[in-house]
Amino acid sequence: MLLGLMAVVVLVARWLVTLESVQGFISEYPGESHLPDGAPVGLPGWLGWQHFFNAFFMVLIIRSGWQVRTQRKPPASWTPRWGKNPKKISITLWLHQSLDLLWLVNGALFVVLLLFTGQWMRVVPTSWDVFPNALSAALQYASLDWPTENGWVNYNSLQVLAYFTTIFIAAPLLPLADSGCPISGLRRPSG
């Protein structure tokens, strides 16, 4: 079913790009917006490390969250020494929340470095033509005639919108949706 739907999307997109008006649209909006003057070229080393730590923490968060969700009896517990009525939590939940905190610190450091190094210009839409360019890039991807790849210098508009949404919208909201977070109502399975 899914494979058939994908085939239909490709066939419709391939037919659309044969139309003269669509070809004019693609030539006017090739899929990428121009970067502002002074935008940095290339990817700095810190960006690679940030991506590595982000993936590393996410894998560990998923693993520890799964352990919290499925364990019957925790191997150990931890009780904080502060507060009026400190509650005992499993060491696995403590690890999960500690990894959440490290992931948040890594994300905050990433955003700070983006802002201070000027790399934000590569992932934040700076003109309204990003939307028709993103539509053009999506059409080119769907027709299997991919837009010119120039990611070292400039991402295509679809990538810019995806990065912007991930970095500045989805990532800040993610800690609220974490199943290991005490405010999300996670309960250990009974039995």
Model description:
This protein has 191 residues and is mostly helical. The protein has one domain. The chain contains 7 helices and 2 strands, in the order H-H-H-E-E-H-H-H-H. Helix 3 (45-70) runs antiparallel to helix 4. The two termini are 39 Å apart.
Shape, per Cα inertia axes:
elongated
Helix percentage range? 55-70%
SSE class: mainly alpha
Largest sheet: number of strands, sense, barrel closure: 2 strands, antiparallel
What keywords describe this structure?
single chain; 191 residues; mainly alpha; two-stranded antiparallel ribbon; 7 helices; 2 strands; disordered C terminus
Topology:
Blueprint (H helix, E strand, L loop, with lengths): L1 H15 L3 H9 L16 H26 L6 E2 L10 E2 H27 L2 H4 L6 H13 L14 H21 L14
Helix pairs in contact: 3-4, 6-7
Outline:
With 191 residues, the protein is an all-alpha fold.
